[in-house]
Specification:
The protein is of the alpha/beta class. The chain has 10 helices and 13 strands. Strand 4 (about 110-115), helix 5 and strand 5 form a beta-alpha-beta unit. Helix 2 packs parallel to helix 4 and helix 6 packs across helix 8 (about 235-245).
């Protein structure tokens, strides 16, 4: 079938856009939905129970029936160690699933926003990565995500690949580092935290708002979108979490990552700079400490 031409090229604020989200019930999806609705757009949330991206015909029929202007592709296996243990499932979901979504977008004329990860880089640099560095994925998870990027680039002229760093947010859906540190610190006297892995914290609310702003530009391409203010170690991030959460009863102990034996390798350096946004004068992301403090205040309110 001949692909349909894109219906809209630039999504300005005054336009009401129909946005379909895959994998929408996770940590990012919950905040993304609120940001999209607040902007006045139509948001159709899907997850594996109603849109399994691994099933091509289901994906194709759904996107052709719904005819979204934009598909925000979040659906992925993100458990790095589980991906290492089950590589076929990782590639089927993260790579083949993305291929299915990209083919359906090609046929329907929808713009695809693919959510990528900074972990596709090898981690050997001493400073943060830019969009112009060459990926060298070290784990099954990272490679499955990178191969998906290549598929999007080859199939679609009109696409955005937006890479996130160490994601935090989601409120009740938060199952990652911030929520875990707060939970553990409230019940333990000490916590051992790795101090030799570095990354760029990325607040889901800021990331979601940044995606909508990027859509308004019509500047297709690959972007890093992390919170600014420099990078940090896991230990430094944990220190900030306890400070903003007001927890003074737990002592953090810096340790080497060699202390923990994990199935999947982690890059030493997972930090990034929003270099492409900076070059275009569009780096609107706020400092990560400011974002983290706002998120923890939000958790207190919940």
């Amino acid at each position: 079938m001949t692909p349909r031409p894109p219906r809209v090229f630039v999504y300005h604020k005054e336009y009401k856009v129909k946005i379909l989200v895959t994998g929408g019930r996770g940590m990012l999806g919950s905040d993304l939905r609120e940001v999209v609705l607040q902007a006045g757009h139509e948001c159709i949330m899907t997850d594996i129970n109603d849109l399994d991206v691994r099933e091509y015909e289901l994906v194709r029929r759904s996107i052709l029936d719904i005819r979204p202007d934009v598909v925000l592709h979040l659906a992925a296996l993100t458990d790095v160690d589980e991906c290492e243990r089950r590589p076929a499932e990782a590639y089927r979901t993260n790579t083949v699933g993305t291929h299915n979504v990209a083919l359906a977008c090609l046929e329907s004329g929808a713009t695809l926003v693919y959510i990528g990860t900074i972990s596709i880089f090898g981690g050997s640099k001493c400073e943060p990565y830019t969009e112009f560095d060459i990926p060298a994925p070290a784990s099954v998870y990272a490679n499955s995500k990178y191969q998906a990027e290549l598929i999007v680039q080859r199939l679609l002229q009109r696409h955005y690949i937006v890479r996130a760093g160490w994601m935090f947010g989601g409120g009740a859906e938060d199952k990652k580092f911030v929520a875990k540190i707060i939970e553990l610190a409230r019940t333990r006297d000490t916590l051992q935290i790795v101090d030799d892995k570095f990354g760029s914290p990325t607040y889901t609310v800021d990331f979601a708002a940044g995606i909508l702003r990027l859509l308004e530009t019509g500047l297709y391409g690959t972007y890093h979108m992390v919170n600014t203010g420099g990078f940090c170690s896991r230990f430094e991030l944990a220190q900030a979490i306890l400070e903003y959460a007001g927890i003074a009863t737990c002592r953090l102990i810096p340790v080497s990552s060699a202390l923990f034996s994990l199935p999947a390798p982690r890059p030493r350096m997972e930090a990034a700079v929003n270099y492409h946004l900076e070059l275009r004068g569009l780096n609107w992301m706020r400092p990560w400490r400011e974002a983290l403090k706002a998120y923890i205040e939000r958790l207190k309110g919940d």
